[in-house]
Amino acid sequence: MNQDQILTKLPYTKPFLFVDELISISENTVEGKYTFTEDSYFYQGHFENNPVTPGVILVECMAQIGVVCLGIYLLGEATEIAETEPKIALSSHQMDFYKPVFPNETVTVISEKEYFRFHKLKCSVKMLNETGALVAKGSICGMLKV
Amino acid sequence: MPRMTTEEIYTKLEPIVATYLPEDIPISEIDPDSDLTGELNINSAHLVDIVLDVEDEFNVEFANEDMETLRTMNDAVAIIQKKI
């Protein structure tokens, strides 16, 4: 399954799609990018007159790239029935934040698989900003099945 | 190593399951017939955590088919007994 096929399989759409492109993907790791454009809806309220990307949105971006894209790839590799839509759910996450992300910043998400067993995918995931500085780091678990 | 009895397996299994009980379920609710997800309210992700902990504790490996037959504490004991 190539990177474009994975993107078309993502079950999200605007304004809740937080993946622009995948840089690389393999059995154990994925790297992708997203730009938080200044017209994103959450900047209207977070915060009033002081737009900063909400931490929950950063986690969502990390989960979409780091867990869902990787999971779709792994499911696609493991099964012939790559035609069906995967069922996905976030099951848990632990995240530490180091730097804010402001409107129009492009972030890079790098995720490494810890395990994928019995439909549960656990990854250690980090987010970097354009200067390469660490924005957030933690672990995210999701349940994925076709 | 001598074969573990079902009681011995159960005694080692109970604290593993207890780790993943939601706050509203007391440990006293765990009994051999307890349905792990239905009655003890363990979510599907934590059910996987329990299996991974069981694999470490008993040095066994669960297959997908085992996961499908795993509903109650007794099911878990039976699967473990078969494998050790």
Automatic annotation (TrEMBL), chain A:
- Look up keyword Lyase and say if it applies: yes
Q: By its UniProt entry, which InterPro entries does this protein fall under?
A: FabA_FabZ (IPR013114), HotDog_dom_sf (IPR029069)
Question: Lineage of the source organism?
Answer: Bacteria, Pseudomonadati, Bacteroidota, Flavobacteriia, Flavobacteriales
* Database matches in PANTHER family: 3-HYDROXYACYL-[ACYL-CARRIER-PROTEIN] DEHYDRATASE (PTHR30272:SF1)
Q: Alphabetically list the UniProt keywords.
A: Lyase
Keyword Plastid among UniProt keywords: no
Q: Name one GO molecular function term.
A: lyase activity
What this protein is called in its record is 3-hydroxyacyl-[acyl-carrier-protein] dehydratase
UniProtKB/TrEMBL annotation, chain B:
Q: Which GO terms describe its cellular component?
A: cytoplasm
What Gene Ontology molecular-function terms does this entry list? acyl carrier activity
PROSITE patterns given in the database record: CARRIER (PS50075)
Q: Which residues carry this modification: O-(pantetheine 4'-phosphoryl)serine?
A: 44
Keywords, comma-separated and alphabetical: Cytoplasm, Fatty acid biosynthesis, Fatty acid metabolism, Lipid biosynthesis, Lipid metabolism, Phosphopantetheine, Phosphoprotein
Could you tell me where this protein is found in the cell?
A: Cytoplasm
The record, for Pfam families, names: PP-binding (PF00550)
Q: What range(s) does the Carrier domain occupy? A: 4-84
Pathway it works in: Lipid metabolism; fatty acid biosynthesis
Alphabetized Gene3D superfamilies for the sequence? ACP-like (1.10.1200.10)
Modification after translation, per record = 4'-phosphopantetheine is transferred from CoA to a specific serine of apo-ACP by AcpS. This modification is essential for activity because fatty acids are bound in thioester linkage to the sulfhydryl of the prosthetic group.
The family note in this entry says: Belongs to the acyl carrier protein (ACP) family.
Function of this protein?
Answer: Carrier of the growing fatty acid chain in fatty acid biosynthesis.
Query: What is the protein's name according to its record?
Result: Acyl carrier protein
